[in-house]
Write a structure and sequence with these properties.
Blueprint: H1 8-29, E1 32-40, E2 45-52, H2 59-70, E3 84-86, E4 92-98, E5 107-111, E6 117-120, H3 122-139, H4 144-157
Antiparallel strand pairs: 1-2, 3-4, 4-5, 5-6
Length: about 160
């Protein structure tokens, strides 16, 4: 068999068909399947596929849960994964993961408006999340967890 160059149009169609097939499999098996990056050479291509027990659960999201539960000095909480907070410039950001090797800016956040991912300091995320909870409490939109904490404080104070 003689090698021939890959046509980018054929590769795009193949990728779309693979995406449809993985969505079908993900729904039937109740798992998360996400296509990763596509690396293309002249004669071959490699398409990464991530499979997880829940939709959206990536290795970075798992690392965030692990870091939040085992490193309390970072100030992160496990329930903040996928939560949205407001950056200083007014953008809405969603916590999506953690990079263990990036010691200065380990927390990954995604801008809600366009999906661009940024790296933040753990302390900055903790500060912004606490500011969000305080703002919600002032506005009367306390989360159930915050309501439980204030009810507990009230019962201890009485």
């Amino acid at each position: 068999m003689r090698a021939r160059e890959l046509d980018p149009d054929v590769l795009a169609v193949a990728t779309a068909e693979i995406k449809k097939a993985t969505q079908f499999v993900a729904q039937n098996l109740d798992i998360g399947i996400q296509l990763g990056r596509l690396r293309q050479g002249r004669f071959s291509a490699v398409l990464e596929i991530e499979i997880s027990s829940a939709p959206g659960m990536t290795p970075e999201a798992e690392a965030y849960i692990e870091a939040a539960s085992t490193r309390p000095e970072a100030g992160l909480r496990t329930e903040w994964l996928w939560e949205v907070f407001e950056a200083l410039n007014g953008d809405d950001l969603q916590v999506v993961g953690y990079q263990r090797r990036n010691w200065r800016y380990p927390v990954l956040v995604r801008r809600v408006s366009d999906g661009v991912v940024f790296r933040y300091k753990a302390r900055e995320v903790a500060n912004r999340m606490c500011a969000r909870v305080a703002r919600d409490l002032r506005a009367g939109k306390a989360t159930t967890q915050a309501k439980g904490a204030t009810a507990q404080e009230d019962s201890q104070g009485s």
